[in-house]
Amino acid sequence: SSDLSDLIAELRADREERRKERKAMEESIKGIHNQLSKTVNDRIRTVEKSLEVYSENTSKSISVLERYPRESHSSFVGFPEAETSELTDDNDLRMNQSDRDLFIDCVSKTQGCRLTGNVHAHVRRDYTADELEQDRFLRREAGKLNAEAGQLEFVVRDLKICRLANPRPLPERSMQALERAQSARALPPLSPSSFPVLSRSLTVAPPRSRHGSIASNGGRGRGGNSRGRGGRGRGMSRDSTRRPSRSSQSHLSTATNDRAVSKPPKRALAADSSPGGRPNKVMNLSMLSPIHSE
User: Fold this and answer.
1) Measured in whole angstroms, how far is the alpha carbon of residue 13 from the centre of its chain?
2) C-beta of residue 237 within 8 angstroms of C-beta of residue 287
3) Per residue in 139-171, pLDDT tens?
4) C-beta of residue 131 within 8 angstroms of C-beta of residue 125
5) Exposed / middle / buried, residue 217 (Cβ in 10 Å: 0-12, 13-18, 19+)
6) What is the 3-state secondary structure (H, E, C) of 10-64?
7) Nearest-angstrom CA–CA distance, 291 and 50
8) According to the 3-state scheme, what is the secondary structure of 105-119?
9) Which residues contact 168 (CB under 8 A, 6 or more apart)?
10) Is the distance from CB of 181 to CB of 284 less than 8 angstroms?
11) Phi and psi dihedrals of 103, rounded to 5?
12) CA–CA gap between residue 199 and residue 264 (Å, rounded)
């Protein structure tokens, strides 16, 4: 009985130890769960607070922008307000006015044309094909106005003809073109008497007809009929058919030379059609260089 009571006491002690271990494990698991939930809740609160701050700042920015009119939004980049919001956004992406003027000035002073080598002949890379055509047309119109005014008074800016408050003198190349146009307009018009007159000796000989050969055949027949009168007629007819006379040879050579000389080359006529060094292509104000206006 004593052994049985000892065994029962050991079992009770072992069960109590296991119960304590299980309780300690449950308490540790509960503490870990509480700590994890606390950490997660703190992190969630931090994220929510940052989102609240971001939304608050966004609302503040929107409220600040709404205080200003829409027309002043694009003034920060130097371009005016466009008709639509899409065009306004495109304009806002461009460089400002001062950087644009500096860039164009540097390009116009350093970059030369590939064909002529002259500066100020660059092409705007930020324009479309239609805008380039419109820009060229406006530059031609400004060039006409500058030619009439005799000074650099009109320029093209942003596809518009602007008038300078302080006009400047025209560039040297523009002055030379203007002087050439004025001198060409001052010359008298062409008259028929100014063209060179060909000599009367340089005339085209009429083409030979078949009557010459018919006449020679007729002479041969007459020579044959005069056989009874004398044998000399036949011999003369043979000589005339075999070898033409010297007069006929000289006439043929003269006609050939007349044909060759009577049709001078076109280049000679073109060169003679401008007596006194007058240019063949008369230049007027509308044909001036379209780059008179920067």
Assistant:
1) 103
2) no
3) 989 988 988 888 889 998 888 999 988 888 888
4) no
5) exposed
6) HHHHHHHHHHHHHHHHHHHHHHHHHHHHHHHHHHHHHHHHHHHHHHHHHHHHHHH
7) 59
8) HHHHHHCECCCCCCE
9) 151, 152
10) yes
11) -65, -45
12) 12
With tokens 């466009």, the residue in question is 82
User: Rounded mean pLDDT of 262-278?
Assistant: 46
**Tokens linked to 154:** 């009109």
Q: Length of the chain in residues, anyone? A: 294
DSSP string, 134-201: HHHHHHHHHHHHHHHHTSEEEEE-SSSEEEEEEEEPPPHHHHHHHHHHHHHHHSPPP-GGGSPPPPTT
pLDDT tens string 72-96: 544 444 455 556 666 666 665 665 6
For residue 290, give both structure tokens. Answer: 């379209």
What's 83's DSSP letter?
S
